[in-house]
Amino acid sequence: MKAGAQGSRVAAAKGVAFTKSPVLAVRLPDWRSRVVLFALFAAFVALAGRALWLQGVSNRFLQKQGASRYERTLELPATRGKIFDRNGLVLASSLPVKAVWAIPEDVLKSPPEKLHKLARLLDMPYPDLMKKLDSDRTFVYLKRQVEMDVIAQIEKLDIDGLDTRKEYKRYYPQGEVMAHMVGFTNVEDIGQEGIELAQQKNLVGQVGSRRVIKDRLGRIVEDVGMSREPHDGRDITLSVDSKLQYIAYTSVKNAVEKFHAKAGAAVVLDVHTGEVLALSNWPTYNPNDRSHLTGEQLRNRVITDTFEPGSTLKPFTVALALNKGVIKPNTLIDTGTHPYSTGGHLIRDTHPHGVIDVSTIIQKSSNIGTTKISEMLSAQEMWEMFTKVGFGQAPRYGFPGAVAGRVRPYKTWPIVAKANMSFGQGISMSLLQLAHAWLIFARDGDIIPLSFQKINEKPVGQQIISPKTAAEIRTMVESVVSPAGTAPQAQVAGYRVGGKTGTAQKVVNGRYSQTHYVGSFAGIAPMSNPRFVIAVMIDDPEGAIHTGGGVAAPTFAALAANALRAENVPPDSTVTDIIIPEHPLEESF
Amino acid sequence: MTGKLNVVLTALLVCCALSVVNARYQARHLFIDLERLQQQQRQLEIDWAQLQLDQSTLGKAERIEQIAREQLNMAPLTPARTQYLTEGGQ
C-alpha cells in the first residue's frame, strides 16, 4: 500500500519491483515446463479417452440408466376366457377388481377413525384389520378381490402406505345350479374344479408387456423397443343348456328332500350329438361364496362316484342275446317260482313270474330271467359288450376326476359273475357312463363319444348292436313304464317314454347292506323319436320308499316332462292321465 | 454462386427441421388419441362383460320361476290342459 501511496505504477514488494525480482532472475531448467506441458496433455488425453469410452464403447450401462428415468414397462393384463352355455348365456366371466395391500408401519400412523372407516369398507371387523397390520413385513394383503366401487371409496380415505394391485375376479351368475359343471377358480385365477380345471390351458390368457416413454403428466408418449401383445384366454361354449340344467337341478333337489336321501344326481344327454345337456348334483355349493365348502358339496357324483347300477343294466345282457340271435323278444323263458341256484348262489325274484317272454323279463325286471339269458352267453361276449359301451374304460370326456368304474377281466369271473352282472351287480360305473351306454338303445345301436363342449358336426358312431335290436329294446323299456311294469311313476303325460329302474344295495364294509340303497333310473324320451337320454341316481333314500322305481322313476318323470316341454318337443302320445297302480311291482335286487 | 446456393440450402434445412418438429408433435398427439381410444375400448369390453353377467344373473331360471309363481301367479303348463294345433287338423 505504501508503494501505491507513493504513486508508483510498478508492482513492488518489499521495495523491490516485480520485474526485477531476484526470484525471476533464476533460470529454471527447460525440462520442468515440458513436464508440466506433458502432464496437462496426458490429462486431456485421458479425459478424451474416457469420453470416447463412455460414448462409444461401453455405453450400454449409461443408456440403460438413462432409459430407466423416462421409460416404463407396462404389464398388459390378459383376461381369462369366458364360459358360455349352448345358447350364449354367460356362465363364468372375469371382471377387473383390486387387491388392497398395505405397508403396516405407514398405515398405522393414520388416525384411528380413518382405519375404522377402512375396516368398514373392507367388510372386516376392526380387530381383524389391526391383527393384519400388526406385522413386521413391509407388504401385507388386507383384502383381495375388492370390487371397484369400494376401491374408489377407499382411495378417497387417502391413507398413507395403502395401495392397490389390479387383479381379476371370476363371477358365476348361475351360482349353484351350474356349480358342478363349470367349477371354479382360486384367487390366483387358476381352475380348481369342473370345466375351469379341465380347460385351464385354453381359458388362461397370456400376459403381455410393452415399454413406453411417459411424459411429465404420466401420459404415454411413445412406444419403445419390443412389446408383447397380451392374448386373452379363449372363450368356451359348453354343451350344457341352462334351462335343462335348472330343470335337472330342481328335480334332483326336490327328490333328495322328498325321499330324505343323502344325495342325488342326474344327467341329460343329447341323443343325436352326444352332448351333455345337463349335469346336476345335490348337495351342491355356491361357487361365488366358497367359505363353507365341504367335500360332500364338492363331489360331482355323476362323474366321480361309481355305483353298482343294478337292474338298469339288464337291457345290455338282453340286447347282447337278441343281437346274437339266441333269443327273440317273444322267446319264453321259465323263471320258475322259487329262487334259482347257480354257482352255489341263490338268485331271487321279488315275485314269482313263472313262464314269461323276454319282453316281460325286462318289464318285470326278473333276475332269474336275465340269469337264464346270461347262461346262453359266454363271459367273453358279455365282457366285450360292457367294454365296448365304455364300462370299466378310462373315460375321455375331458372332465377332471372322471372314473373308469370296474369290470373285472372275464377270465377271472366266477361262475356266478355272469348272472350277477346280467342284473348289474359286481360291476360298477359312474352315472355318466351308464347314461352314455344307454345311447346305444336311444340311437340305432351305435355309440358316439360324449362332449362337454358344444359341437356342430354330428359325430360318427360305432355300431354295437343292430338297429333292429335297439328298436326291440326300446319297445321293451317302454313297457317298463306302464302300469304293469316296475316304473309306472316314470310315465310322462303327453309323451311316450321308456327306461329301466335299478335298485342296488350299497356296499358297506365290503358287504351288501340291507338298509342302504342306491335307486337309479336310466331312460329315453320321447320314444317316437328319441331326443334325450336321462339318467337319475338317488343315493341312500332313508324313507319307506327306497327302490329305483319309487325314488328315481318319479324324478325322471319330473325331469323328462319339463325338459320335453322346455325344448318344445311335440307330444307323441294322447295320454294325459297317468295311471299309477296303488302297489306297483317292486323290482328284484 | 456458392453464396446463393448456401442460402437456398439453409432455408431448405430450416424448413425440414420445422416440419420434423411438426410431424413429431402430431405423431405424439395421434399417439395419445390412440391410447385414449384403446383405454376406452378396454373399458367398453369390461362394461360388456358386466352386462353379460347382469343378463345371466337376471335371467336365471330360478329367479324367473319365482317371479312367475309369486308375482304373476303363473303355473306350469300340463299336457292335460293343452290344446295342440297341428297342420291338417289331425
Uncertain segments of chain B are none
Tell me which protein chains meet in the greatest interface and how many residues each side has. A-B, 32 and 27 residues
Instruction: Describe the global form of chain A.
Output: elongated
Number of helices of chain A: 22
Spatial shape of chain B: rod-shaped
Report the C-alpha radius of gyration of chain A, rounded.
41 Å
Give the mean pLDDT of chain A: 87
Distance between the termini of chain A: 135 Å
Would you kindly provide a brief summary of this structure?
The complex is a heterodimer of chains A (589) and B (90). By secondary structure, chain A is an alpha+beta fold.
Give your account of this protein's structure:
The complex is a heterodimer of chains A (589) and B (90). Chain A is α+β, with helices and mostly antiparallel strands and 589 residues long. The longest helix of chain A is centred in the N-terminal third of the chain and has 28 residues, at 30-57. In chain A, strands 4, 5, 6, 7 and 10 form a five-stranded mixed sheet that branches. A five-stranded antiparallel sheet of chain A has the order 12-11-21-20-19, sandwiched between helices. In chain A, strands 3-8-9 form a three-stranded antiparallel sheet. Chain A has three domains: 2-57, no CATH class; 74-237, Penicillin-binding protein 2a (Domain 2) (Alpha-Beta Complex); 242-286 and 298-566, Beta-lactamase. In chain A, β11 (263-270) and β12 form a beta hairpin. Chain A is elongated, with a radius of gyration of 41 Å. Chain A is built from 22 helices and 21 strands. Chain B is mostly helical. Chain B has a domain at 9-69. Chain B has helices spanning 2-58, 61-70. The radius of gyration of chain B is 35 Å and the shape is rod-shaped. Classes of the chains: A alpha+beta (589), B mainly alpha (90). Chain A binds chain B through residues 79, 82, 89-91, 93-96, 171, 173-175, 177, 219-223, 242-243, 246-247, 493-495, 562, 565, 570-571, 576-577, and chain B through 28, 31-32, 35, 45-46, 49-50, 52-57, 59-62, 65, 76-80, 82, 84, 86.
